[in-house]
Records
---
Amino acid sequence: MTKFIVRRVFWTIPVILVVILLTFGLMRQIKGNPFRTSERAIPAEIQRNLDRKFGLDKPWYEQYARYVKNVATFDLGPSLVLRNRDVNDIVKEHFPRSLELGGLAFLFALVFGIPLGAVSALKANSWLDYAAMFFSNVGFAIPSFLVATLFIYFFVLQFDFGFPTSGWTGWESKVLPVVALGLAPMAAFARLVRGTMLETLQQDYIRTARAKGLRWRRVISLHVLRNSLIPVVTAAGPTLGFLITGSFVIEQIFAIPGVGRYYVTAVQARDYSVVMGLTVLLAVIVIVANLVVDILYGILDPRTRDVRT
Amino acid sequence: MRIKTLWLLLAMLVASLALVAAGCGGDDDDGGDAAGTGATQEEEGGAEAAEQVITVNWGTEPPSLDPGLASDTTSSNILQNIMDPLVKLDDDLNPVANLAESWEVSEDGKTVTLTLREDGQWTNGDPVTAEDYEWSWKRTISPELAADYAYQFYGIEGAQEYNGCESNCAAMADKVGVNAVDDRTLEITLTTPQPWFIQQLAHHSFLAVHRPTVEQFKDKWTEAANIVTNGPFQLESWQHNSRIDLVKWDEWRDADSVKLTRVNGRMITDGTTAVQAFEAGEIDVTGGLPTEEIPRLKETEDYQQYPGLGTYYYGFNVDNITDVNQRRAMSLAIDRQSIIDNVAQADQLPATGFTPKGMPGFEELTPDSPWLPETADLEQAKTLMDQVQNPKKDITLLLNDSPGHREIAVAIQDAWKELGLSVTIKQQEWAQFLEFIGPPPDKSIDVFRLGWIGDYVDAMNFLELWTSDSGNNSTNFKNEEYDGLVEEARATEDNADRYAIYGQLEDILHGEDGQMPVMPIYWYTYVHLERPTVQDTYNLNLLDQIDLTKVVVTEE
Amino acid sequence: MVVDPTQATRRPVDTAAAPAHETAGAPIAQSNLWKDAWRRYLRNRAAVLAGSVFVLLVLYCAIWPFVSPYDPNEVDFALKNQGPNLEHPFGTDNFGRDLFTRTALGGRVSMGIGFGATLVILLIGVAYGSISGFVGGKLDNGMMRFLDTLYGLPYLPFAIIVTAIFGNVTFWTMVVALSIASWFTSARIVRGQVITLKENDYVRAAKAVGARWFRVLARHLLPNTLGVLIIAIFLELPGVILGEAILSFIGLGISPPDASWGQMAQEGRLVYRVAPHIIAVPSIAIATLILCANFIADGLRDALDPRTRET
């Protein structure tokens, strides 16, 4: 097992290098001048000074080599647009908020999704089941921007529940964005758990366990739930990765100063170093989330260790 | 179970639609209600409130609070309030003495001597001296800082050379025409007489920075913990992309006149989110408003509107649309007033010339063009169009993708259909858009949209755009007479004479025989929501500047 | 696409219990298999209803713009922001354009992008997965390592970079943006299927009598993965549609005059206080499409894989 984990961890290093190379290559394809922010033309002298200052006058391979070297020393370089800030500052200040938002939404999805699905499966075809599945199907299908807009309209503007419309300060400000972001994965988890639980309940060994007179409650907790959680674990990695790296819409609507909001503006402003830095960071999140899942999976289902390297 | 679930889902979708419709429809009736809770029938000029605190929305994160590096409105507005400008502009954009108590312009108009007040000081107690200015300006001009706005100083002798220097830079720095004669006297040598130079000093690029602080903290000197300022407000905290809070600095030379004790500032970029925050009482002043919301918000007493010194225009690529009659016809076909009323919606003024109303000398310019009617003149447009030998029928119209532009383009596309033109709207995100319009513009582009907001208060700032070698002329329009007149205006110190030349320039653009390289649509306005308790004092001048020293919060 | 976590369960399908194995190895019974599947699908009333709604939606989007009495691009400010009424069942937008017609057009764009990107994802997946799985050995190992690497790419950020590269977002740019970092899962599924099938007796027999490898692939392997791929289309679709909506919402949607449902919703959000129907109509259209896709996928899964059956 240790060997498996060590191998998987080492494997992330070439992955990150490839991600840097890909992002670097793609960014270079984008036309646009990071220094021309308004319709005003930049005089040639000033353009030259700027290119020189940020090393953009060097050939691309030199820029890449320098960048990789800097990343290796955890220096993501200065922002080209936010002239007094380093990418490191931006990550340090904004990333924890995205992490918190994504993490809380993920927890919300797990904490409400799994019981919802489990109850649905155990009470299959009851009204409870219908209601729960109805809720999760709709929750999954409605785009998050509509959910967020409805939340703000009804829970803040029409009826005052004490939530602010925007920002990321006290817990009050976090409730609506977290629920708006977590609704879809919650619904997905509920459906997933319901489906696999129904399937597991049909299995022979469960029937045997029941026939042997094991107490029903114990059977559920030991066998059924445990088995049904395997697909949830598998789904959890990509979901967590997606929630942390994909909260652009929620961050925009609720004016949350996370990296998602920064990312879009940075791409549009051609702030190469910020885009590079944040992409590498987001890739690391996805990689780590996948890594954790693989390891968890290896623990839950030992067969995978041999097949997957 | 699924069949039931699915029916339920469909039912719920329909129900939710009804709910949204009902919920929001109801809002129409009690639209005034939300505003009513904030402020009842208070007449303006109420008594001063005990607590002089407001919360504003700065909009975007300021890219830099370094006067040398700042290049956007948000940074500029904050800087103008935490620093002490040499001159300020009054409501009519005339320069008013501020930290510079007086100035003198030499006979030939090329030497400007400023005298500083003696009570200017930095927040650490140091006095503000002429040397501060000399050092700060040369820093901004220096190639090492690579400041975007270094060109603001190009009117000063030696500045452009120093900014573009490859070697021997130190020697060239000494030749820049900025000289601290003594602590309070700053002497500036200009390349030509520039009658607008005093107004230009109100621009944030000309603010001074505190040398020891900059040298100690380098790039990080603008962080709230490090910064040393010299204005009426201090930067209390700066949480990036989230908030900037200012507090009154009690030691400021004229602190007694400042009413506000604190200005909390949020950064909400999304217009709809900002409006919601205002309606929920979280902010007292919004930034700009989403166009689509304006008709609803206009009905509230919080709505405020200010004229702006800016022109929204469409430029023609004259190499593609070669016939001037086609350009005139295309301009005549547009119903500017209808676009304003139905699309732009903020009571902008239909542009009758390129120089916006409010510009000093505007009356003498009489930019009163036969080709820029307020409402469409389709008949004449069609007549003109018929005279065109080889009309360009397939028009590619390039826009950037920020909100609002597409809507105007759709209306114009619709209008040009009447002339038998088929318009393809091509939308690009800003950075690529700028690459496309050049200059020179991409060959595929026939028409593009842009705006121009004045940086300083002289029609020169607008009219010099259309010279042959202008870095902002994306129309391929080249006219020697025009270039010559611009040169002549630059050297003309007398206002009346200069305005007369500006009138000729406008004539070349839009007059009876005008070449129509550009088609102005409207002159900008700025719109905000403001609580009635801060209205009338939270004023902006034509350059979109906020002066927090004048803001007073009244009793509700 | 990672938007739907349920789909992610298919990631380790090559190692964990693969749901469709049992049905796989019987090419002789092909026609019967499909007939059976169709019968089973028809027994599932929810899937039938979802399928019908889906077909209606497609027909509406395809046909209505030709039939509609309204020009979808005709600007008439006198008619703007009308709520749903008899003349305009979905109301009008802020240009006074008929939303019933524009929603049909928007559906063409959204569904076109949705199916386009899904097909691209599956095509790349099939090509990559079947080569990797069929050839096996070192090549398989290398290709899977590479795939592992690509798994590190965050999907939306890369989509954003791609739209920026093209600058002017068109139908095809959007398809590229949405598929560039989301075909990895489908490649894995196909590879898993192919590896399982490779051990199948028919395939072994075919190989034994000396059939060419691509013949084996085309005759025996791909048809057997078809069922899984059809399910995958409907599983993949919601994620792609939502992805397009997200990109449109943050201002990276395709250029006018076309407007996808995502863009219509984004425009609607700006006026939701005065004309809530403008955000509601496209949002509900998106939701309906996603719901249908989910139920159809469920139905297909049950129909094509008799092992898992609804209680």
---
Amino acid sequence: MNTTTPAVQVRQLCKNYGSVQALKGVDLSIAAGEYFVLLGPSGGGKTTLLRTIGGFHKPSSGQVWLNGQEVSHLPPDKRPTSMVFQAYALFPHMTVLGNVGYGLSLAKLPKAEVRDKSMAMLEMVGLSGYENRRPHELSGGQQQRVQLARALVLGRNILLLDEPLAALDAQLRKDMCLELKHLQEKVGITFIHVTHNQEEAMTVADRIALIADGELVEQGAARDIYRTPQRRFTASFVGENNLLSGNVTAVEGDTVTVEVCGQPLAVDRRDLPVRAGETVALSIRSELVEMVSADGTAAADGCSLSGTYAESVYLGLTLSHRAALADGTEIVSRVVGESDAPDPAPGTAIRVQWKPGALRLHVN
Amino acid sequence: MTDATDTGLGGLPPVEPFRPTLRERMSGWAFYIPIVFMVLFFALPMALTVVFSVFERTMFWMEPGFSLLAYENFFFSARLENFLASMGYSLISVAVSFCLGFPIAVFVRKSVPQAAQHRVVLLFILPFMVSEIIRIFALRPVLQRNGLVNETLLNLGLIDEPITALLYTHTGVIIGEVLSFMPFIVFSGFLAMEAVPKYIFEVCDDLGAGPVRRFVDVILPLAAPGIFAGAVFIFVNGLGVALIPNIMGGPGAVNAGLIATQAITALDFPLAMAVSAIMMATLMGLLYVGHKLFDLTKILAPMN
């Protein structure tokens, strides 16, 4: 395959259900061999996008190109995609081997070949010795592996995974995430994985696209999405960001001054089109926020806010201190590690501060 | 004990074993009522049917004894032929009902929105609100020589002579049976399709299973027990309900039920009993074969 051709290209894709717009003109390009994750809240359109790529939904308008071919008119089995479904979507009356081999036997391959290929694929997903079991004799994780084998054995080069781990418990989901990642590296084909779980997304993804409200909000590597969210929605959905809103009072070169609760904050402009007097959103990750006593050492200019302490929440690895600004906006400071220092009393005046550059500006 | 009192549980009475109330103890027995009912009003009469079938025939009733005359009367007469023929025609009714009814069940499960599915199936109950005798009798003006069907076909110029095979024949009986019993295959098919999860259709789309392979490889095996239940119901009724051949049938177009009814009319009670016993034995035999083939327990224990 020509590696310069993207595996998936979606152009101006729209999907309407009656008056509801599930997809509003999505453009997307996924390189061959990439592990791509569609991340977003439920009902945001990510599953609709995946199913339209797979051919289970007809787009209302727009095009789907797979491996450089326009496929919008093709049914699922004529596309170079295969699907792993959310539910344990196995044939309940067939054995594991029967499930995996069914697609190949439909393609009229010789029986011996069907068997060999299916067994090899079962070994690949770690289910050797389970070939004669029935689906109801398997655990949830094992059933999803059978689905993986059933999809991969077809030899199509784009694998679609529709919330494949949603029905598994938390620990199993973590293990399966890594396995999926390693499996993708081993087989080298394109994986497109839909999930609403950001930890799952960040574990497996080469690149993540955030889908919400029928639109592609932002895409990029997991690190970039987490550290430098471009859009306010990304900041609110990924990680644990504090969101503030304020008025722009001055724009000087690359620095924008935003007034939040009467206190000026300095933030990098990032070439965004912003004018004085505008209302903008600011975000800062909670682990970058430090809480100090109100009369402590002065922080860098424009990098602190005063507020009142509310409470602390102990989460094991991290401890979250919650405080409120003058207008009631909640701000969270998350610290790692054990500290035996007593928390301030609720209502104590405190300051939250951060390093210059930690705060991010978002305009609509 | 004293320790417990010391740690703050003082004053509480000792823990006593749980004693069920009278009502709770009685409720266990309530589950045996259906068994008593079934034995009294089903198993016992069935056994008596076999016993009576070997009694001696008298003028108006029968008297205890042992005679195989009734069986001889059945096996060495046209009755056996008619009985076997009615089994064949019952099978045709089952097949026609299945071909018409099961696609409806699949369609309702697959294409009708979840919320409306049960309402659509309820539509098939509507005909049952009209007495069966009226429903069947109403077919006569439709199917008879100068009935609706023949008149229409004649007027359209599709036929030159009225089709007389539609009534007072095996065809008539089959039409009557399909009309009466098809809803059962819709119901049982609809319930059987519950064992066929909706995702199966998408998986088949993905793997490239066309409609025929999908039906043979996936839907049929999964829905088989339910389909079998519906088929048995129709077959048994096709064999046993005397009303339909009585109204729609004619010479030779009878079933086991009508043979027994005719024997009763002729006051030959042992023969009527023998026909019933033979029908029962036949059906139980078929059910056993069906169970061996399809494992009917599956319908009670859906797969997951």
